[in-house]
Model the fold of this input.
Amino acid sequence: MGLLNSSIVYSEEIYGWEFLEFEHFEDVKFMIVGLPDVGLVGAITGMHLIRSKDMSYTVGIDHYGALPPVVIMNRGRVLHPIRIYRSGDVAALITDVPILPAAIPSFSAAVVEYSRRRGIEYIISTTGVGNPKRLEQEKPSLYWLASDKKASLLASSLRMASEPEQGIIVGPYAIILKEAMKKHVHNLVLLADSFIDIPDPEAAAVIVEGINSITGLNVSVEELIKQAEEIKLRMRDLMKETKAVMARMGKEMEYRAPILYT
Amino acid sequence: MGLLNSSIVYSEEIYGWEFLEFEHFEDVKFMIVGLPDVGLVGAITGMHLIRSKDMSYTVGIDHYGALPPVVIMNRGRVLHPIRIYRSGDVAALITDVPILPAAIPSFSAAVVEYSRRRGIEYIISTTGVGNPKRLEQEKPSLYWLASDKKASLLASSLRMASEPEQGIIVGPYAIILKEAMKKHVHNLVLLADSFIDIPDPEAAAVIVEGINSITGLNVSVEELIKQAEEIKLRMRDLMKETKAVMARMGKEMEYRAPILYT
Amino acid sequence: MGLLNSSIVYSEEIYGWEFLEFEHFEDVKFMIVGLPDVGLVGAITGMHLIRSKDMSYTVGIDHYGALPPVVIMNRGRVLHPIRIYRSGDVAALITDVPILPAAIPSFSAAVVEYSRRRGIEYIISTTGVGNPKRLEQEKPSLYWLASDKKASLLASSLRMASEPEQGIIVGPYAIILKEAMKKHVHNLVLLADSFIDIPDPEAAAVIVEGINSITGLNVSVEELIKQAEEIKLRMRDLMKETKAVMARMGKEMEYRAPILYT
Amino acid sequence: MGLLNSSIVYSEEIYGWEFLEFEHFEDVKFMIVGLPDVGLVGAITGMHLIRSKDMSYTVGIDHYGALPPVVIMNRGRVLHPIRIYRSGDVAALITDVPILPAAIPSFSAAVVEYSRRRGIEYIISTTGVGNPKRLEQEKPSLYWLASDKKASLLASSLRMASEPEQGIIVGPYAIILKEAMKKHVHNLVLLADSFIDIPDPEAAAVIVEGINSITGLNVSVEELIKQAEEIKLRMRDLMKETKAVMARMGKEMEYRAPILYT
Amino acid sequence: MGLLNSSIVYSEEIYGWEFLEFEHFEDVKFMIVGLPDVGLVGAITGMHLIRSKDMSYTVGIDHYGALPPVVIMNRGRVLHPIRIYRSGDVAALITDVPILPAAIPSFSAAVVEYSRRRGIEYIISTTGVGNPKRLEQEKPSLYWLASDKKASLLASSLRMASEPEQGIIVGPYAIILKEAMKKHVHNLVLLADSFIDIPDPEAAAVIVEGINSITGLNVSVEELIKQAEEIKLRMRDLMKETKAVMARMGKEMEYRAPILYT
Done:
C-alpha cells in the first residue's frame, strides 16, 4: 500500500481561495513561489527544491470556481492542485495547473495576504524572462527586482546579478509585487534569461544558485542539469497549457518597451 | 397502461440542486456513483447494477439552471435526468445528461453533502482511465484511490487491484474526493483501464467485480459482457455528448504527468 | 377603422414574467399549451383552436429581458408576443416568438404557477415527436404522458393513443411536466408523430381530435387539413426560428436512447 | 469663437438613463421620436423637423453603460449622443448612435416614463416599414397604429393613411407602445413604406406631412426632397451601423407573418 | 544599485480605481491627460513633458479587475501601469496600457472626480484627430473644444487654433468632457491632425506648443522632432495594442458625420 493522506488540521479562506493546512504553518522565513511561466523557470525551480530537500506537503490551496476540477494522485496520496511544501524555515509553492487570467488578481493577493498572516518575511518570486538570444548564452544571466529596501538587501548576497534596465512584468508576479508593497511584506523577484516556449532547466539552475546564496539552502544544481532532457520531456504538456494562458493574459506585452525611458 | 408516477414525499435543496425523494432515503451504506466519463465506464456500471438488482427509483436530482430542460419517459413513467436507485443498503446514482463544466463543483459538493446528511458511509466513485494500450489488454486492470484510512480498508478485499503510481483525475470525481476529505465521508475511487471515446462494457465489468467484493452484491458480469455490442450502440450518442463535455473541462490534462514525481 | 385595444384590468408578475389580463381570467378548466416545437405541432394546434372557436384574447404575457422587443399588429389591434385566448372553460396559450433556452425554466414554471393561482385543473401540452418515418405514415400516431393518476384518467377517453415505451422530452414541456408534479397541477402531454423541420398540420389534426375527445370542444379538423399547404407556407419562417432555438437547447437529445431500458 | 455650452439646470435618472436638462422641460404636448431604424425614416424625420423649425437643444440623454463613449462637436458646442430638441409645444428626440439590443427595453421604458413625468400628452413614433416593392411606388403609403382610443382620434386628421392589416414591429417602438399602454400615455405610431438598407428621405417626407396634419407644425417637405441625395450620402455610415444593430435584435422577424390571421 | 521605490503615503479608491500617492498631491493647477489614442498623440505628448521637465512620479493608478496584471520596471524601480507625474503646478497622466472599452466610463469618471477632490482647476485632454490628408500637411492643425466658458478663455492664448466645425469624439476623452461638465471641473480638449495607426510625434509637437502657451511650461519641441523616428519605432507595439482597442470601442464612428448639421 502507498502513502496515507494526512487530515486537514486547519483551513482558512482568503479572497475565495482555500488554504488547507495538513500541518500548522509557522516559523517560515522564506516563501519561494514557483509558478508556471516563461520557460517554466519558476515551476522547475520549485519542483527541484522540493525534491532535493525532500520537503513535506504542508498546505493545499484550492478554488473550485477558478481552477479546473482536479486532484493529483501520487502513490496513493491525494494532492491539491496548488501546494506549499516546507523544510525548516523555507517553503516552496508550486502548482500543477496554470492560473487563468481572471483568477490572477485574487490568487496573487491571497498568497501575499496568507504570507502576511503567517508571519513570512520574504516572498521570493522566481521566473524567466524570454530572451530571443537565449540559445547563444553559455549561462543565462540573473536579474532581480525588490519591492523595498529590506528586500533589496537580500539581493546583496547575489553574485553576478543585476537589476534590469527597463521592462514589463505581466502575470501573477506583477500583482504579488504590488500587493507586497501595499501590505509591507518584502518581495524579491529573481529573473533568469530563458527560452519562452521550451522548459528551461538551465535557467532554473541559475535561480536555484541565487536561492542558495540568499537562504543558505545548499541545493545541488548538478542533478538539475543532468536531468534537463527528462524534465523538458515531462513538462512539455504543462508548457503547452502555460503558453495558452500566457497568450490570453497579454504576456507578449513583456516584449515591448514601456512608454517612458531614461 | 404503463407505470404510475410516484409522488414526492420529501425534497431538499443543496447548493442549488433539488433532491426529490419518492421514498425516504435512509439506511444506505454504499452510494455507487456512475457518471458519464472516459469510456462511459461509470455510467455502464451504474446502469448494470440497477438493472441486475432491479433497484427502485428513490431520489430524483434536478437543477433547472445547470441541466438542459429534460425529462425521461419510461413506459409511462416520468424520470428526472439524474437519479438515485436503491436496493438494500446499496444505492446507485446515474445520469442521462453529462454534467457541464460550470456545474461540476456545485453538483459534486451537493452529492457529498447529501450523502453526509443521509448517513451514507461510503461513496464509491466508478470511472475509467483512458489507456492507449487498452486494445492489447486481455482484461483491463483495476486501480483504486482512497480518501482516508477507512476507505482504504474497504479496498483490501479487492484482488489484483493496485494504487496508481501517479496521475491526475479531472472532473466531478476530483471534487467528490476533495469534498469527502473535508466532510469526513469515506470515498473510494475505483478506476479501470478503458477506451477513451468508445463505451467500454468490459472495463465496467472489472469495476462491477470490485463492487461485488466490497459490498457483497453478487451482480452477474456475464450478461454485461454478452450485451457489450448492444450497449456500445445504445450509448453511442451519450458518449458523443460526454466527449464534448470532457474536452471543455480540460480532461486531456489526465494524459500528462503531474509536476512532481518520486 | 380596425379593432380597438382593450385596457389591462389586472396584471401580475411571476418569476419575471408579466401576465397582463384584458379580462379577468377565471373558471377555466383546461389550458391547452401550444408552443413552437417539432413540426410546429403545438403552435398549429393552438392557432387552429383559437380560430375555429373564435376565442377571445384574454391575457398577454411578456418579459422584456427574455423576449425580443416585439408587438404584433392585427387590424389595428396591438397584441403581446405570448397570449392566452379563451372560450368557455377552455383556454389556449400560443406565442409568436420561440422561447429562448435561457428563458425556458422561468417561463415554464411561471405558466404552471399562473395556472395554479387561477385554479386551472388541467394543463394539456401539445407537441410533436420527430419521426424519421413520418412520410410513410398514413395517419400520425398519438401518444400521451401523464404527470399523475388524475391526468392519466383524462387520457382514458383517447382512442388509439398509447404511452411511449421510452424517450426523452427536451424543452419547455419537460419543465412544465416537472413543475406540475411539484405543484400538484394535473398535466397531460399529447404527442403526435411529426416531421421535424417542416410544419405538420396533419400531426396537429391528430392532437386536435384528442383534445376534442377530452374537452368536448368539437373543433373541425377538416379545415385544418384543407389549409395544410397554406399553413406550411405561412409558418415557414417561424419554423426556421424554432429550428435554430431547438438546436441550441439540445433538442437532438430526443433522438437518442435514455441510459436505462427495461 | 463658436457657440457656448449651456449648463445643466436639472438632471434626473430613470432606469439607468440620465436626462440632463439644459432648459426646464415643460408644457410640451407632442414628443416626436425619431430613432435610427428601417430606411432611417425616423432619424431623417427628426433631423428635418429640428432643422426646419430651428428647435433648441433642451435635454441630453446618456447612459455610460449602454452607449459608446461619445460626444458630438458642433461649432464649439458639446452635444450628448441622444438629444431632445424643442419648439413651442412640439419636441423631437433624435440620436447619433443606434440603441443596442440589450439597451432597448430600459431606454424605451425610460422615454415613456420621462414623458409621463413631464406631462407629455402624445408620443408620436416615426418609422419605416421595409417594403420590397418600394422602388415601384410613386409615393410611399402611410400607416398608423394607436395605443388607445385617444391616440387613434389623433390619426383621424391623416388623409390617405390606413391601419396595417397584420404585421410585427420589432425594436424600441414596440416597447414604447407596450409601456405607453401600461402607463396611460397616448402613443401613435406613424409608419411609411420604405427602403430597408438605404436612407429614404421620401418616406420621411410622407411622415412629416402626417406630423404637419396632426400638430399643425407646417414644416416644408420640399427641401427634404431636394436634399435627398445629400442626406443619403451623409447618413450612409449611420445606416450601416443601424443595419448591424437591426440584424442583432431580430428585426427580420418583421418580414414574416404572425401566427394568427383573420 | 538602481533607484529605490518610494512608499505609499496615502491611497484612495474612486469607482474601483486605486489612486496610490507616493507624495501628497496638492497645489496642482493643470492636469495634462495623455492617453494612447489616434496616432498616440496624447501618449507622446505626456511622455515628452515628463522627460523634458524631469517630472517626479507622484501617483500610481491601478485596478486589478480592469487592467492586465502588469508592473513596469525602470532601473530597479517598480512603476504602476497608469501614473501621474508632477512638476510645479503642472501634472501629466500617462499609461503603459490602453484602457479597455468596458473600463472607459469608470476610469474617465474617476480621473475627473480625483481631479475635483484634489482641487485641480483645468484638465487638459490631448489627442489626435485622424486626418486622411495628414501626409500632405506641412504642419498639423491644432483644434480645441472647451467644456465651459472658463476653459474656453484658456484657449484664447492659442495662436492658429480653431474649434472644429463638426465631429464626433469617441473614447475616454468624451466621458472626461461630459463628467467635467457635470462636476464643474474645467476641461479643455486639444486636438491635432494626426496619422491614425502610426505614432505621430509631429502632431504631438503641435499640442506641446499649445500647452506651452497655456501653462507657460516652455518645453522644447525640437528634441521631439529630432527623436521622431526613434519614438515611432519604440511605440510601434503600443500603437498596435491601441489600434485593437480603438476598433472595439467603435472609434471608427469619428469618421462619419453626426446626424445634425448647420
In short: The two ends of chain C are 62 Å apart (CA to CA). Chains C and A do not touch (no CB pair under 8 Å). Chain C has eight helices and 13 strands. Residues 14 and 114 of chain C are 7 Å apart (CA to CA).
